[in-house]
Amino acid sequence: MAAEPPVAVVTGANRGIGHEVVRQLADHGLTVVLGSRDPDKGRRAAARLDPGGHRVRAMQLDVCDDRSVTAMADRVRDELGRADVLVNNAAILYDTWARARSADLDEVRRALETNLFGAWRVAQALLPLLRRSPHPRIVNVSSGAGALHAMGGGTPAYSVSKASLNALTRLLAGELRPDGVLVNAVCPGWVATDMGGGGGRPVREGAAGVVWAALLPDDGPTGGFFRDGTALSW
Ligand code: NAP
């Protein structure tokens, strides 16, 4: 009997970079859980990629909702029996209109709830399965906007949330190193999506750097920050 393919979970995957990451991981032979907070959008997105429903499976997933996250992790365990890769992609609030000196702190809190706590919550929920994987990987989709060395004002909610996600990446990488879980942050570059707007590069290119980190060999890096497979400064 053929071995079961590895299983990846991608959050916020009904559109944009996450959707393309699902396509590319499925093309690499993984079974991919397409997480979407709206189940209908998720089903439609999965059907676009895999009409037969063999390689891509839509699951309802709101990263801000404990019950939704727990239910997804239970379904992955019961229906697929394993989780090998987690791509924390879901994010909101690229607040180009705001400044730190006057930012609406409720808006900042909302960004942290999705972009930091959402990723953290999903990682915690899937860790029992990831720890049992022979090649576990966590990819936190971050942004150059979260790099402290280049931070000089603007997009305060988004930038603080991505800098925090980078810190979480370092913490998880350090704590999970003994379990062989490689944890990295990846900036996809400026990508033409609903969030990125027009003018950015194609989603195919932005997603490729995320997929690179999801499929790292066992001697690959952990606790790093990358764009297109090249290390970035924090
Ligand atoms: P996007 O087109 O706005 O898509 C965001 C996705 O996240 C959507 O599927 C959205 O679902 C989902 N999402 C939002 N809140 C969620 C929640 N609470 N639970 C589950 N899913 C949720 O964004 P994108 O450009 O593809 O960005 C993907 C990632 O790349 C993000 O982490 C972003 O910060 C990062 N990034 C993007 C760029 C860029 O230029 N585009 C640059 C640097 C970094 P709904 O459809 O339900 O809203």
What secondary-structure arrangement, pairings included, does this model have?
Blueprint: E1 7-10, H1 16-27, E2 31-36, H2 39-49, E3 56-60, H3 66-80, E4 85-88, H4 105-132, E5 137-141, H5 156-176, E6 182-186, H6 203-214, E7 225-227, E8 230-231
How big a fraction of the residues is strand?
Answer: 5-15%
The distinct bound ligands, ions and cofactors come out as: NADP nicotinamide-adenine-dinucleotide phosphate
Order of helices and strands: EHEHEHEHEHEHEE
**Number of E-type strands:** 8
Query: So what's the oligomer here?
Result: single chain
Number of alpha- plus pi-helical segments: 6
How many whole angstroms does the radius of gyration measure? 17 Å
Strand order of the largest sheet: 3-2-1-4-5-6-7-8
Structural class of the secondary structure composition? alpha/beta
Residue stretches low in confidence (pLDDT < 50, at least 5 long) are none
- Straight-line distance between termini: 45 Å
Shape: globular
Task: Using the coordinates shown, work out and report the CATH topology.
Answer: Rossmann fold
The CATH superfamily turns out to be: NAD(P)-binding Rossmann-like Domain
Based on the coordinates given, report the CATH architecture.
3-Layer(aba) Sandwich
The largest sheet is: 8 strands, mixed
Q: What is the helix fraction of residues, given as a range?
A: 40-55%
> How many domains, as an integer?
1
